[in-house]
Structures are given as C-alpha cells and as structure tokens.
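Allow me, if you will, to draw on your knowledge of protein folds for a short while. The matter concerns a single protein, recorded as an amino acid sequence and a row of backbone structure tokens. Kindly check, if you would, that the fold set down in the tokens agrees with what the sequence suggests. You will find the record immediately after this paragraph.
***
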Amino acid sequence: MLKKKKTEKKKEVYALGQHISMSADKARRVIDQIRGRSYEETLMILELMPYRACYPIFKLVYSAAANASYNMASNEANLVISKAEVNKGTTIKKLKPRARGRSYPIKKPTCHITIVMKDISLDDKYVEIDSLKKTRWKKKHTTAYRDMYSSGGIWDKK
C-alpha cells in the first residue's frame, strides 16, 4: 500500500498584467522602489508616487493580495513582495498622416508586469518585522535654552 506524500501549502501567489501600454523602463522605475517591501508599505508608496506607472502596478499588487487571501487564506499584514519584474511587450505600430502625402510611424511600447507575493507567516526563514525596527535612545544630556541676544554674544556689541 502506498501512502500519499503531504503536499506543502503553497507559499507564493502572483498577479500578471500583460500588454500594459507604457514603456518597460518607466514601469521598472516604480517596480524597483517596491521590490521586497510589505504589502501595506507598498500601497502607501504607490499612492504617493507621482508617476503614471503607479496605477497599473497598484492594481496588480492589490490583485495579488486578493489572490493570496482567497487561495491561501492569508492575512494581508503577512504579505511581502518577493519578486517583481517588468518585461518588454509588443510594440504597437501606427502610421500618422503628415503633410504632402507623407506618413510618420508611431511606436507605442507595451510591457508585461509580474508581481509575486509571499506569506511570511508560512515561512520560518523570516523573523517578525517589529523586532527589526531600531529602538530610539533617549538623550542623556539636556541642554538649557540659550537666548542668543542676551548671552553676550556678537549681537550685544555696538
């Protein structure tokens, strides 16, 4: 009699956006800022960045988190972007009519964006994020307030 092996619980989910009409370099500029960050931090960063590429990436991150909560039943606080990549897609080519019967080509680049999220509660390798934060040290010395006009400095001289 054969026993079935226990299958490990899936630790990663992904969202894929294809044929997004923007240059891969412009999308890569935003992706580099969010790679390796937590889900909540990523949403805040994408809402505040002034680039046009932020909105489709925001939608993909949100979709990947929805996939994680539905497929793995994981909490959004435990999600981390483990892999984010941008690949060059097809180029849409059109001809624009110009003066004297000529035409100029218009090339609109597209890109494919992949967001992979990992649940850190399922992985033993990650430690709790709060323990990594630095504690703030209190100042040992308190300096008294000095008024620069009455201290006898250069301002008192006439």
Confidence is low (pLDDT under 50) at residues 3-7. The first strand starts at residue 12 and ends at 20. The chain is about 25% helix and 30% strand. The beta strands are 12-20, 79-97, 103-119.
